[in-house]
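Run log, item B.
One chain of 337 residues. Sequence copied directly from the ordering sheet:
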Amino acid sequence: LVGKSDECTQKDLEVLPTVGTKEQPSVESIKELEADLVLTDQALPETIVAALEEQGIQVMVQQAAATRAEFETLYTNIGSVLLGGKNGYEAARDRAQKIFLSIDDISRLIPEEEKSQTACLVLDEAGNLATATTLIGSLLEYAGAINIAAEETGASMTKAELQTADPYYIFCRVGLKEKLLADERFAGLNAVSEGRIYEIDSALLDRQGESVLDLVITLTGIMHPTIDDSISNQVDKEDVSSNVSSLQESTTASSVGVAADGQIPSRVDENSSRADILILQERLISLGYMQPPGDGTYGYWTKETVKVFQEKAGLSKTGTADEATMQKLFADDAPRQ
């Protein structure tokens, strides 16, 4: 990654320069960054696409997933382009599947008798709800709730429909709670009168990476607090890490890629311990070569990232973090991406 649009607010991307908005990106800025590919979730103006392609820069439109199958396709499409053919496809597919396998694990922990509680998730000021035709609406059910908008073809429900469904829980974006309390359509609902309206970080609702797992964990923790400890024990922490604190306990490296005892391994490869691989990955993350989190495995992604660093540092591109690579990597003047 060499650049981002103004809308990209992820903390991990703060080091990247901006190239304008996603509706009107700057072709000149993208060209100066020597980008090969532009990823976008919506079609760009034809004039901008033509200008980018004239510079040899391809545009790949990937719309948001609405189902579990589309989520996997989203991953595999991007993986195939970024990592190439079969290897990229398989690595991305495995990652997507592991995310949802962890969601399945959480869903199985919820007692059947607790899956009869109703809920809705309000997406905007107009009161539109997450339906079964959206990924968020499906995740609400994975978290052990009956989505009152599951059968709706449209996202809006009338006051009479809301009163009839009377959801036990109401979830909404951060900043919408006060507006819902003032909306007459929601007046009189039990969730309103009994204070069961919960605001959810918009990042968990809009982003379609490992944040979908974080969303299920957040919703489950609110609706089924008795299984909160079980979640942290059951979710596959080694394969799918999240930003939720309960899932971060397995991380054995510090945020800057140095072991707790201050020792840096002299060599890291496929045969190294998970702790040593995490040290390598965290250092690559801190220098901007990898996106967090590290998974503690020395697979295709890590090898390719090491090659990128080695080229930047003037070393042979072997993909193995040998002694020379580790010395360059942890030097004070280590080249950043």
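Observations after the first pass:
- The two ends are 9 Å apart (CA to CA).
- Residues 236-261 have pLDDT under 50 and may be disordered.
Flagged for discussion on Thursday.
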